[in-house]
Design brief:
- This is alcohol dehydrogenase (NADP(+)).
- It holds the Pfam family ADH_zinc_N.
- One of its GO terms (molecular function) is zinc ion binding.
- The protein has 347 residues and is of the alpha/beta class.
- The protein contains ten helices and 17 strands.
- The two termini are 15 Å apart.
- The relative contact order is 0.16.
Length: 347
């Protein structure tokens, strides 16, 4: 099936309108007519060649919501007309320990990315959601609850939502927990909403106070400018969990000092250089430096259901497809509050 899309012809080149061919349905496949496609910073890294690869031309996009318009003969979980989402993954081996535990994101044999991955059946390069339609295995679809009205705002949750929800759940955040969020961007603002809904006391650490009003509105109790000297002094040995949502290089020891006994500093971004940490800061209070990568499909469904229950969505700016390249530039300039979502009807 030939479908309209936007794709990058080469590394660092502007995306252009094009056509790609979607595979014929396999027995366990669903065909989606895409309604909304989010722009993630990972898309920009991949298109610009920051994470080198040779799989051009490439259609990015791993934040997708649409309706099922056709199904394979063996599909049992979904039917035509269902509204579903696709996140960062479209397949995994299914038989390693992580997969059997519902953690396909940690597949020991390498999960298949929604784009720029290798199809496990035919070896083709997967193409993402900047298009009118996409084909996906039913096991990698997430059902969008009927009471989730803001579908554009729900779209980034398929990446930003699960990336922040998973570590909050893994480290047992709940009423009485003290959580720090580093960064108030596309990931950070969702993390604030989620942690607040879980009952935690939330503190945002951002370079400046320019987004303080937003942070407090989203549920933060405190908002701290890290550019201020001694910013961490009032919070030493305070937090159970700190999520670092930014990829820019940071001096991590001042943040580790704010961890309570058994506290964890968790990296969600991908710093361009190795991180440095002073061993005594961890050893002295049994603190941990950890990382977390998105989440499995079952947990992604749990996250979407939680967001529907608590009326959580990302703050988005909806754009037509013709403004994708402009949106990329604005993301790099930090000129968006807080995520771009493409109206797929404009592809």
């Amino acid at each position: 099936m030939d479908v309209a899309c936007y794709q990058a012809p080469g590394a660092g080149e502007p995306l252009v309108k094009a056509t790609l061919t979607r595979r014929e349905l396999r027995d366990d496949d669903c065909l989606l007519e895409i309604e909304w496609a989010g722009i993630c910073h990972s898309d920009i890294h991949t298109v610009n060649g920051d994470w080198p690869h040779d799989n051009f031309p490439l259609t990015p996009g791993h934040e997708i919501i649409g309706k099922i318009v056709d199904t394979g003969s063996a599909v049992k979980k979904f039917a035509k007309g269902d509204t579903v989402g696709i996140g960062c993954l479209v397949d995994s081996c299914g038989h390693c320990d992580p997969c059997e535990q519902g953690q396909e994101n940690y597949c020991a044999n390498g999960a298949t990315g929604t784009y720029n991955g290798v199809d496990r059946h035919d070896g083709t390069i997967t193409q993402g959601g900047y298009s009118t339609h996409i084909v996906c295995r039913e096991d990698f679809l997430v059902r969008i609850p009927e009471n989730m009205d803001n579908l554009a705002g729900a779209t980034p949750l398929l990446c930003a939502g699960i990336t922040t929800y998973s570590p909050l759940r893994h480290w047992g955040v709940g009423p009485g927990s003290k959580v720090g969020i580093i960064g108030m961007g596309g990931l950070g603002h969702v993390a604030v909403k989620l942690a607040n809904a879980m009952g935690a006391e939330v503190t945002v650490f951002s370079h400046s106070l320019s987004k303080k009003d937003d942070g407090m509105k989203f549920g933060a109790k405190n908002y701290v400018a890290t550019a201020d000297e001694g910013f961490n002094e009032p919070y030493k040995s305070h937090f159970d969990l700190i999520l670092n949502t930014v990829s820019a290089p940071l001096d991590l020891p001042p943040f580790a000092e704010m961890l309570a006994l058994d506290g964890t500093l968790c990296l969600l971004g991908l710093p361009p250089k190795p991180v440095e940490m002073a061993g005594p800061l961890l050893v002295g209070k049994r603190r941990s430096l950890a990382g977390s990568a998105i989440g499995g499909i079952q947990e992604t469904q749990e996250m979407i259901d939680f967001c529907a229950e608590h009326d959580i969505s990302a703050e988005v700016e909806v754009i037509p497809a013709e403004k994708i390249n402009e949106a990329y530039e604005r993301v790099l300039d930090s000129d968006v509050r807080y995520r771009f979502v493409i109206d797929a009807a404009t592809f």
